[in-house]
């Protein structure tokens, strides 16, 4: 078994993650009649919950052959009981013969999503008896919000499906169903995240886990937005700021990014219609340079940044 304790992260990090969504429903609200996109009724901004983003990340972990505790029920994945069997295999001994600390180490080593996001343990198993009731997740994201008011699609509002069936006389008859298809035309959406070094001690989040997250967010948006309603989303900018001063963080890096466009907000339809203004973010990072260990940046070339050369010189780019 890998000893994750020695590798647990020592530094706090913050994340700004910007995606865009075109002709899609980034996060439908199941409490509405037709699973409508979540729209702030005051500002007209599109909202995407942290739960939706974490679902993409968990699904990508599974695709990368990691075991997760909170799996997508549509996937062919381990049941929770099977996962606990995997914990025993990780330890090399049965849960009956292992010490509680060994069980804890094996559990977080096995369940990748628990190391990131934490979990509430609610299983009637011998292993669960030796685990805490709850793990506080060191990696947390806030709800994503579009940087502008969005418009809703009207072109594909109604869907009709016609199916041919055989009638009692052997002939064919047609039956149709209608559904409402709710999408936004376009939105540039920003998430803020933080990686808490104190909570990382409980889940044994490692440096390798954090480095994996730097690509996981990007790949998850590329690979997991494949259903009909979710297709059309792309990652555009990922910034992770790792601090070296204990307990310090700038706070809500995503709010220091904005969309600069000559068009009315609800008429923005693609990357050619705006610049991504990161000047306030760059200034905040420069002002706190002495407190920052490193900055990790991944950017899509399709997006124009305001002050791109300054950003690249100060932050670097991967």
Automatic annotation (TrEMBL):
Q: Name one GO biological process term.
A: maintenance of CRISPR repeat elements
Report which residue ranges the record marks as coiled coil.
none
User: What InterPro entries does this protein map onto?
Assistant: Cas7_Csh2/Csh2, CRISPR-assoc_prot_Cas7/Csh2
The protein, known as: Csh2 family CRISPR-associated protein
Q: Which organism is it from?
A: Halococcus thailandensis JCM 13552
């Amino acid at each position: 078994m890998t000893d994750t304790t020695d590798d647990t992260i020592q530094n706090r990090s913050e994340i700004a993650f910007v995606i865009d969504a075109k002709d899609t429903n980034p996060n439908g609200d199941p409490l509405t009649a037709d699973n409508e996109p979540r729209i702030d009724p005051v500002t007209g901004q599109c909202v995407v919950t942290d739960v939706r983003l974490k679902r993409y990340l968990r699904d990508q972990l599974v695709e990368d052959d990691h075991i997760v505790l909170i799996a997508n029920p549509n996937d062919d994945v381990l049941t929770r009981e099977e996962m606990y069997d995997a914990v025993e295999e990780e330890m090399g001994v049965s849960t009956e013969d292992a010490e509680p600390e060994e069980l804890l180490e094996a559990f977080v080593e096995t369940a990748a999503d628990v190391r990131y996001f934490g979990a509430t343990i609610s299983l009637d198993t011998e292993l669960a008896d030796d685990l805490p009731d709850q793990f506080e997740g060191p990696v947390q994201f806030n709800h994503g919000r579009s940087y502008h008011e969005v418009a809703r699609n009207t072109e594909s509002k109604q869907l009709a499906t016609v199916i041919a069936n055989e009638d009692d006389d052997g002939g064919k008859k047609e039956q149709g169903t209608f559904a409402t298809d709710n999408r936004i035309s376009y939105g540039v959406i920003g998430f803020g995240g933080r990686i808490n070094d104190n909570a990382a001690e409980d889940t044994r989040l490692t440096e390798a886990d954090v480095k994996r997250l730097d690509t996981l967010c990007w790949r998850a948006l590329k690979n997991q937005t494949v259903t009909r309603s979710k297709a059309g989303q792309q990652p555009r900018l990922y910034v992770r700021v790792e601090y070296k001063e204990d307990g310090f963080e700038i706070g809500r890096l995503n709010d220091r990014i904005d969309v600069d466009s000559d068009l009315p907000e609800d008429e923005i339809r693609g990357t050619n219609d705006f610049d991504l203004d990161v000047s306030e973010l760059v200034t905040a990072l420069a002002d706190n340079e002495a407190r920052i260990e490193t900055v990790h940046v991944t950017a899509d070339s399709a997006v124009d940044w305001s002050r791109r050369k300054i950003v690249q010189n100060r932050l670097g780019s991967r």
